[in-house]
Amino acid sequence: METIHTAYSSLIATISTTYTNGKVVALRAVNNQLLTTYWQIGQHIVEFEQGGKAKATYGKALLENLSKDLNKLHGKGFSRSNLNYMRLVYVCFPICEELPHKLTWTHLCELVKINDPLERSFYQQQAILENWSTTELIRQKNSSLYLRLASSKDKEGILKLAHQGQIVAQPTDILKDIYVFEFLKIAEPYHLSETDLEQRLITHLQSFLLELGKGFAFIGRQYRITLGNRNHYVDLVFYHRILKCFVLIDLKREEANYQDVGQMNMYLGYFENEENTESDNPPIGIVLAKEKDELVIQYAMHNVSSQLFVQKYQLYLPNKEELRKVIEDQLNRETE
């Protein structure tokens, strides 16, 4: 009897797996066909617009007329806005085979809002790499993720970032010059203690992990380590599943100083010797501060672990135009 039950349970599991896999394949096929169909509709609209007399006759009212007539024939789905997105998708992806079929229609509607081809390409690649939902894609666009990453790179680095996305292969790949915590919705002026900031980040952990990037797994907060009969506490501890190492983060309400660097260096030494297993790589330490004096940090980092970094955070969205100017200057600069 037990053997029969085991065989039956196995049958249930097999059928469930087959059904689930079939649904995934079916949904993917439907999504692929939907994107192709909308692309073709966009193509028809653009080609009609280029038709000389037809363009002059219908002019700016084309999408409005199409919306009314197509909705009469097929019901909802042909709003003027949706038709405009179909048109834009064709304009941005003039070759059908280059449509990012791993993304959904709502993803594409967000991508075609981006005018700069390099920026659009980055978000397309990154949405696929990190399996972003549409909501996550919108958040990363609004927080200027591409601009923040690209502004610290040279021309070659910017082009690579745009075409491949942010590939994580070494510790510096997980860093941002400035981390943006606008999702905390802290009104200005603000007076937060480090403990308050830490608590708010934990409360909004999903958004915090999205800002940190792909591969971070939360381990704990106020992680206690004991040295010389005294307890010390690391603000936030993560494990990076791609780099296979612990990532320690200490939050500083104001400016980072040499003492913060020394403290983090001590934490790194402890984790490497006491917490790491044989399969773990050396830990990474990030001191996140509101401000930092580059020269002070440079000297404080002398002969300190190359796995230790001091980065800045801000609570409000960055100035996009300033970042764009930095990137444009890099792209326009002749290769020396």
UniProtKB/TrEMBL annotation:
Pfam families with a match to the protein in the record: DUF1016_N (PF17761), YhcG_C (PF06250)
* YhcG N-terminal domain mapped to chain residues: 15-148
Which superkingdom heads the taxonomic lineage of this protein's source?
Bacteria
Every YhcG PDDEXK nuclease domain range: 173-325
In terms of PANTHER family, this protein maps to: NUCLEASE YHCG-RELATED, UNCHARACTERIZED PROTEIN YHCG-RELATED
What name is this protein filed under? DUF1016 domain-containing protein
